[in-house]
Amino acid sequence: KGELRIQSLTFDDAGMYQCIAENMHGIIYANAELKIVASPPTFELNPMKKKILAAKGGRVIIECKPKAAPKPKFSWSKGTELLVNGSRIRIWDDGSLEIINVTKLDEGRYTCFAENNRGKANSTGVLEMTEATRITLAPLNVDVTVGENATMQCIASHDPTLDLTFIWSLNGFVIDFEKEHEHYERNVMV
């Protein structure tokens, strides 16, 4: 196929490579530079979020994305406790930590550790639980005569520390109340 494969790269493999193809009609050349990238893990460009919010009973993914070459091995701790994969907790191959069925006991300081053959680094964030947002009064089906007005309600409960926004859509398309103000009207009840 004309391929060159290099197994278990070392810094000595770096340099300019040249492929030469020839037949009875002539010869052609193509050049390419091979750079060897190697660096210890660092969170300088992409630190972990300092505050992570998770809804009670929901699912949260805490990302851990350091720059590193080769790809690092990941481990996680909550406070001083080392975390392992279980029924509610999973460490993904990309370093992310997933927690399902979040409870108050899951709140705390989470640290991601990344290590490769060049070094190691870690980054920490705090997980806080919020009350899940729930629709307490959903819109009901309405039969209306053409030309009349129709009113639909939607009421939700939510964590008081968070803002709540209602978004209405028609057949999967979000309604733009500013552009369609002559047809749709939004009434917000506090």
As for the number of domains, it is: 2
Radius of gyration: 28 Å
The helical percent reads under 10%
How many H/I helices?
0
- Count of β-strands: 16
Approximate strand percentage = 35-45%
Succession of helices and strands? EEEEEEEEEEEEEEEE
> What is the C-level CATH assignment of the largest domain?
Mainly Beta
Main pleated sheet:
5 strands, mixed
Structural class: mainly beta
CATH superfamily of the largest domain: Immunoglobulins
Shape: flat
- What is the name of the CATH topology of the largest domain? Immunoglobulin-like
Lateral arrangement of strands in the main beta sheet:
4-12-11-7-8
Kindly report the average pLDDT value. 92
CATH architecture of the largest domain: Sandwich
Terminal CA distance: 70 Å
Which ranges are low-confidence, i.e. pLDDT below 50, for 5 or more consecutive residues?
none
Protein name: CNTN1 protein
Keywords: Disulfide bond, Glycoprotein, Immunoglobulin domain, Membrane, Repeat
Main location: membrane
Domain Ig-like: 41-128
